[in-house]
Amino acid sequence: MKELIIASNNQGKIKEYKYILEPLGFNVLSQSEAGIDIEVEETGTTFEENSLLKAKAIYNLTHKNVIADDSGLEISYLNNEPGVYSARYKGIKTALERNKYVLEKLKDAADRSARFICTICYIDDSGHEEMFKGIWNGTIAECISGDNGFGYDPIFIGENQKVTTANLSENDKNKISHRARATKKLLEYLKSK
Question: Tens of pLDDT along 48-84?
Fold first, then answer.
């Protein structure tokens, strides 16, 4: 079984990766499970830059297989904000408050199109780096709905969906999400090695 360290302390993200990767034979460890207690500052201006910063920081400490992602929501009406600042948008502390803020900004918007983006940086135990990107198009709902997921899930309705992501089962979300799409590309790469 191949060990894989996720360069993150985000429990929602760790849970999704374990759900997707462990059935495929990977021993998935969070940073803390691997004994690493650092918080890498996301100083990049793109998802790619931030995922590389996080992956390199963990790889440099362990020299083991590492994946790091940076993901976020881009809303057309808000000039693709919050983007790379999704988790710390406008300095708002909680996901619920961020969701309420977005809905308020979009209350008169004709265009509610949005997309979740996930960029995964994979560094193997020899130091080789690869990037994988997943995009999930959709729209912003009129109101907060659902109890599953995390972040902007209660206000995002994915393409071909009738309900917000927070109303989907974990199993359904993990088949179609931006993270699932990027992870699928990562898995295709790993299988080709």
Answer: 999 999 999 999 999 999 999 999 999 999 999 999 9
pLDDT digits (tens, 9 = 90+) for 121-136: 999 999 999 999 999 9
The residue annotated as part of the active site, out of 70, 108, 125, 153, is: 70
Q: Does the annotation mark 124 as catalytic?
A: no
What is the 3-class SS of 50-117, one letter each residue?
A: HHHHHHHHHHHHHCCCEEEEEEEEEEHHHCCEEHHHHHHHHHCCCHHHHHHHHHHHCCCCCCCEEEEE
What's the Cα-to-Cα distance from 126 to each of 57, 63, 69, 84, 120, rounded to whole Å?
15, 7, 19, 28, 18
Domain that holds residue 40: 2-192
**pLDDT number for residue 106:** 97
3-class SS of residue 4: strand
Q: Is the pLDDT of residue 1 over 70?
A: no
Number of domains in the chain: 1
| Single-letter code of the amino acid located at 189 | Y
Tokens of 186: 């990562």
- Domain containing 112 — which CATH number? 3.90.950.10
Q: Output the pTM of the full model.
A: 0.89
